[in-house]
């Protein structure tokens, strides 16, 4: 692990909702910064104005805040390396572009989209189905490499649309060490002449990325695998500008459970949320999502799976990030969510469960909610699942159909009513006494214990499963329990068949 403080950045584009893969990238950067006592900066890469979404930046900020990833420098926090929106840093990019032009590392191109497409058509073949704009084609285009200097100046002065392209010459192998993938090499013959400045004067990702990482003093870049092919272009610019590139680490793809990258389309088809806001709306706990994402590509080198954020900071090691894509599992996330819920104090669990529960039953009393949360915690996957136990607060209006067919027998109404009478006659109403009373009734009626307990659960809760039966009855309360048992005995009667017509 590194000990020197680092400067890292999370640099999303505000083109839509924060993707779960983006949150993983932010998390790894955050962990490295906190582990070394370094700086975690947020940079908004908003140079692509055609895809800009006005609400996206706030969604990014909200997502990071929800996950507990505090930003040290950014659009709202400020900092010495600002501004932190690329749209506010255009002068820096213009200066860097001019330096690249002066160094012969870039050139001006006046080609129209139609002219570029015509060039590609001329060069397209079975052996070359996707011709590139590069060393083998640029000499036939309208660029500052072939036009006289005064012609270039005249066309710029006349307002002719033009772009600035990186000049990539063949015959060189560019090699760097990726902290995840080890030594990686690219042959420049495979690299195109990337546009660096668009016709509207805005930089592309490639130029802005290099300039900003240098100007902001970024020491380490952790980003997705999809940016790996961009590295040779960036290395050429760093060299031409006389700058030292940061250390690089490219994360493995998050894969769909059915194979391939987890795209929005595949995720929608499989019912997997893709944006952080969808996980919030679905009721996932931020601690669980962070824990799950941390292990989606990284492993601690031990059998430990459950981590809080501070534990992740202590255990994280960039070199333990895997190279291969890792499969997303919603079932595994649900497991993590349940584990983190069960680690909460009952009061905290009750607070998180309250909104969904009160949507179902209206206002609930604090003390009872905490008791119910404590009793049900082992059975919860999400805090909102506590709404399924609304029967602790309101009597059931219906009864589980399958449970009735299986558990409600001809003598159930009589046994349930008799149990209500017995509970009412007892001095105590405790977990021990309610169980003892049921066992005594079973013995007196020469009925199996299950012959009573299952119909009682149905009568009291409307369900066939839940926490311990007697703990449940005590929490519901003696008066409410006996009322529910007598009502069920009356409504359901001696046979399931009796009540079927009224249920339709």
Strand order of the biggest β-sheet: 3-4-7
The level 1 CATH classification of the largest domain is: Alpha Beta
β-strand number: 11
Helix content: 40-55%
User: What overall form do the CA principal axes indicate?
Assistant: elongated
Distance between the termini: 66 Å
**Residue fraction in strands:** 5-15%
Q: Flag low-confidence runs.
A: 497-504
The biggest beta sheet is recorded as: 3 strands, antiparallel
Structure class: mainly alpha
Mean pLDDT across every amino acid position = 94
Radius of gyration, CA atoms, in whole angstroms? 32 Å
Number of helices: 21
Looking at the overall shape, the CATH architecture of the largest domain is 3-Layer(aba) Sandwich
At the fourth level of CATH, the homologous superfamily of the largest domain is HUPs
Tally of structural domains: 4
Q: Could you please say which CATH topology of the largest domain applies here?
A: Rossmann fold
What does this structure look like?
The chain has 504 residues and is mainly α. The protein has four domains: 169 residues, Rossmann fold, CATH 3.40.50; 115 residues, Glutamyl-tRNA Synthetase, Domain 3 (Glutamyl-tRNA Synthetase, domain 3, Alpha-Beta Complex); 48 residues, no CATH class; 109 residues, Arc Repressor Mutant, subunit A (Orthogonal Bundle), CATH 1.10.10.350. 46% of the residues lie in helices and 9% in strands. The C terminus is likely disordered.
List keywords for this structure.
single chain; 504 residues; mainly alpha; Rossmann fold; Glutamyl-tRNA Synthetase, domain 3; 4 domains; three-stranded antiparallel β-sheet; two-stranded parallel sheet; 46% helix; elongated; disordered C terminus
């Amino acid at each position: 692990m590194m000990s020197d403080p680092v400067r890292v950045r999370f640099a999303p584009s505000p083109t839509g909702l924060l993707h779960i893969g983006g949150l993983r990238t932010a998390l790894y950067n955050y962990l490295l910064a906190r582990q070394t006592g370094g700086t975690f900066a947020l940079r908004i890469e908003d140079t692509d104005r055609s895809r800009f979404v006005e609400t996206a930046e706030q969604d990014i900020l909200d997502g990071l805040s929800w996950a507990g990833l505090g930003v040290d420098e950014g659009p709202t926090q400020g900092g010495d390396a600002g501004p932190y929106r690329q749209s506010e840093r255009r002068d820096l990019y213009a200066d860097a572009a001019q330096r690249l032009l002066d160094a012969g590392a870039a050139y001006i191109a006046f080609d129209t989209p139609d002219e570029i497409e015509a060039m590609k058509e001329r060069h397209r073949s079975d052996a070359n189905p996707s011709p590139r704009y590069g060393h083998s084609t640029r000499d036939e285009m309208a660029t500052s490499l072939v036009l006289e200097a005064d012609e270039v100046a005249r066309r710029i002065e006349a307002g002719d649309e033009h772009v600035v392209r990186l000049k990539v010459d063949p015959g060189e192998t560019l090699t760097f060490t990726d902290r995840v993938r080890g030594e990686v090499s690219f042959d420049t013959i495979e690299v195109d002449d990337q546009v660096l400045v668009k016709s509207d004067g805005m930089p592309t990702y490639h130029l802005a990325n290099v300039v900003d990482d240098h100007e902001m003093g970024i020491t380490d870049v952790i980003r997705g695998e999809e940016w790996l092919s961009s590295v040779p272009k960036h290395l050429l610019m760093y060299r031409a500008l006389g700058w030292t590139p940061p250390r690089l680490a490219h994360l493995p793809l998050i894969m769909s459970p059915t194979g391939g990258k987890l795209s929005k389309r595949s995720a929608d088809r499989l019912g997997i949320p893709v944006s952080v806001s969808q996980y919030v709306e679905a009721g996932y706990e931020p601690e669980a999502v962070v824990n799950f994402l941390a292990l989606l590509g990284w492993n601690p080198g031990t059998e430990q799976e459950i981590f809080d954020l501070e534990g992740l900071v202590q255990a994280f090691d960039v070199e333990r990030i895997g190279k291969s894509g890792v499969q997303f599992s919603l079932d595994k996330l649900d497991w993590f969510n349940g584990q983190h819920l069960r680690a909460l104090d009952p009061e905290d669990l009750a607070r998180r469960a309250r909104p969904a529960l009160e949507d179902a039953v209206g206002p609930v009393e604090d003390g009872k909610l905490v008791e119910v949360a404590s009793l049900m915690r082992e059975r919860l996957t999400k805090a909102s699942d506590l709404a399924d136990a609304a029967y602790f607060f309101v009597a059931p209006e219906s009864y589980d159909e399958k449970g009735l067919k299986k558990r409600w027998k001809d003598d159930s109404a009589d046994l349930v009513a008799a149990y209500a009478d017995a509970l009412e006659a007892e001095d105590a109403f405790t977990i021990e006494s309610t169980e003892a009373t049921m066992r005594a009734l079973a013995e007196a009626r020469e009925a199996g214990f299950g012959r009573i307990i299952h119909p009682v659960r149905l009568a009291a809760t409307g369900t066939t499963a839940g926490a311990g039966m007697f703990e449940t009855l005590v929490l519901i309360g003696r008066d409410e329990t006996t009322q529910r048992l007598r009502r069920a005995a009356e409504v359901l009667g001696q046979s399931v068949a009796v009540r079927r017509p009224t249920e339709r």
